[in-house]
Amino acid sequence: MRGIALIVAALFATAPAAAENMSHAHIGHVMSGWGDTPGGKGLLPTARAEAKVAMAHIEFALANPGDMGAIRLHTAHVLHAVDPESEPSGPGKGYGLIKAAKGARTHVAAAAQSDDASDNVRLHAKHVGASLANVVGWGEEIVALAVRVKAAYGAEEAAPLARHILTLLTCVTKGCDFDGDGEISWGPAEGGLKQAAQHMGFMMIGEGL
Predict the structure, then answer these.
(1) Considering Cα of 116, then 119, then 121, then 123, what sign does the dihedral take?
(2) Is the Cβ–Cβ distance between 112 and 121 less than 8 Å?
(3) Whole-prediction pTM value?
(4) How confident is the model at residue 20, as a pLDDT?
């Protein structure tokens, strides 16, 4: 009996492992973990964490719109959270909203392009990718505005730019009703991180994850 048990154990030890579902692996990189993010967290949660920091600091910047020092300081903190390469120090995670959103978009596209991708993955990857493309575009606009705030001569010039940043960050976090139909879709100029997360959720439910 002991000999049979050893043979069975050896067979299990040498049996090939089940092939990894590459589509699901990429979904995991978006939602659960990625190698170079702070704490190894998923790319989409990292983007949302950076956006939260940026939103808090643009609100601090506008708490006293006549205080140029506060506007400049907190807009620099926004810039750090959105793109640390443009502003190396600040209270953000050090990864950057734009980098995280780009990474999430890359991996959700890779999930859809995997040989084992289901129709469910391909459908929702389109929705997530469109929302993340919006986020990247808005993020790049925020960087350009933040640079202008830092160079502004006074609060009268800087405050309207900071208010525009606030508008864009609201779109980043919640999406925007661009067409004015009373709803926010995942589509161009509408979907933000909230919509990307919603459609990743739909994708994962459809995959039983």
Answers:
(1) positive
(2) yes
(3) 0.90
(4) 78
pLDDT digits (tens, 9 = 90+) for 92-114: 999 999 999 999 999 999 999 99
Residues 149, 145: Cα–Cα separation, whole Å:
6
| Cα gap 47→58, rounded to integer Å | 17
How far apart CA 43 and CA 143 sit, in angstroms, is 20
Read off the DSSP letter of residue 182. S
* Residue ranges covered by each domain of the chain: 22-207
Nearest residue to 189 via CA among 181, 179, 198: 179
Residue with tokens 């006549």: 66
Two tokens, residue 111 = 């999930």
Query: Running DSSP on this structure, what letter comes out for residue 65?
Result: T
Alpha helices in 63-118 (DSSP H): 68-82, 97-113
What are phi and psi for residue 29, nearest 5 degrees?
A: -65, -35
Contacts of 42 (CB under 8 A, 6+ apart): 28, 29, 30, 31, 32, 33, 34, 104
* Measured distance CA(197)–CA(171) in Å, rounded: 14
Q: Quick one: tokens of 146?
A: 């933040």
User: Which residues, including other chains, have CB under 8 Å from residue 2's CB and lie 6 or more apart?
Assistant: none
Backbone angles phi, psi at 17, to 5 degrees: -70, 150
> What would the two tokens of residue 124 be?
């929702």
Please state, in angstroms and rounded to a whole number, the distance separating the CA atoms of residues 173 and 155.
26
